[in-house]
Amino acid sequence: MKISTQLKGLPIISISNGQQEGNVQSLIINPEKGFVDFLALEQEEWQESIQAIPFKKVIGVGEYAVTIESANSIIDLTQIPIASELASKKINIIDTNVITRKGELVGNVTEYQINEETGEIIGLILKGQESVISSEYVITYGKDIIIVKEEAAEPISVHEEVVLTNDQIIEKLPKEELLAEDEASLNGLKEKQRELLLNKQVTKDIYSNDGELIVAGGSVLTLEDIEKAQNAGPSVVIDLSMSVNA
Predict the structure, then answer these.
(1) What is the C-alpha to C-alpha distance for residues 230 and 164, in angstroms, rounded to an integer?
(2) Residue 179 three-state SS
(3) Backbone φ, ψ for residue 108 (5° rounding)
(4) Cβ distance 195 to 172 under 8 Å?
(5) Residues 6+ apart with CB under 8 A from 214
(6) How far is the C-alpha of 24 from the C-alpha of 65, rounded, in Å?
(7) What is the pLDDT of residues 62-108, one digit of tens each?
């Protein structure tokens, strides 16, 4: 699983000749399917064409680069009506408000999670609450508003905490006035995190929301490292969980 900003700016490498064919500039979303259909390449302002790679042509999305078989995987979106229409819709997702079908505000999206194998959008990460809405609750990805089922709003209360397991399962638990059983459950989930992350190697530097270095890239995680990340907040644990070797 990747978040969108992990793809943007990555070099695009052709396997057939080992050459860099460009860099990822943006992700073009198919709002009906809930997938990233194309990766648009960086281009000069004077260029009228939109060079892009169909996600199904992507061989791999790594920390260093996006790989494709050859430059033949790159197409001109302006020459394909359906693809050009998707590009013109400019569905960004990030910084879009999320509301229910009945018009209740759920939150504002700061990031979204992607299955790097298929391009499917897995979940929406919300501002402030540090909560994740599963894509199964999304009804409409609009240019200005994302509409979700009422059930998606239930866990987004004023006081809650997000707990992430290594399998990217998000559970939302009340943050204050926890009952004894809730507290035990929370502690159990955190312990599970420690078990799953312990002795895993970190692929990049992990920072707190205040910019403090939590653990350096290349380090092998200790219990102290994991607890430090947990104390720094749910978003730091999410970042750490997505940045370890399997």
Answers:
(1) 10
(2) coil
(3) -120, 135
(4) no
(5) 206, 207, 208, 225, 228, 229, 232, 236, 240
(6) 9
(7) 888 999 999 999 988 877 777 778 888 889 899 999 999 999 999 89
The per-residue pLDDT for range 121-153, each reduced to its tens digit, is: 999 998 876 668 999 999 999 989 999 998 887
Helix (H, G, I), strand (E, B) or coil at 143: coil
Q: pTM to 2 decimals?
A: 0.60
Tell me which residue of 13, 147, 10, 2 sits closest to 73, measured CA to CA: 13
CA torsion sign, 195 to 177 to 136 to 24?
negative
Q: Where in the chain does DSSP place strands (E)? A: 2-3, 11-14, 20-30, 35-41, 51-54, 58-61, 66-68, 75-76, 97-100, 105-114, 121-126, 132-134, 138-141, 145-148, 160-164, 170-174, 206-207, 213-215
Burial of 51 (0-12, 13-18, 19+ CB in 10 A): buried
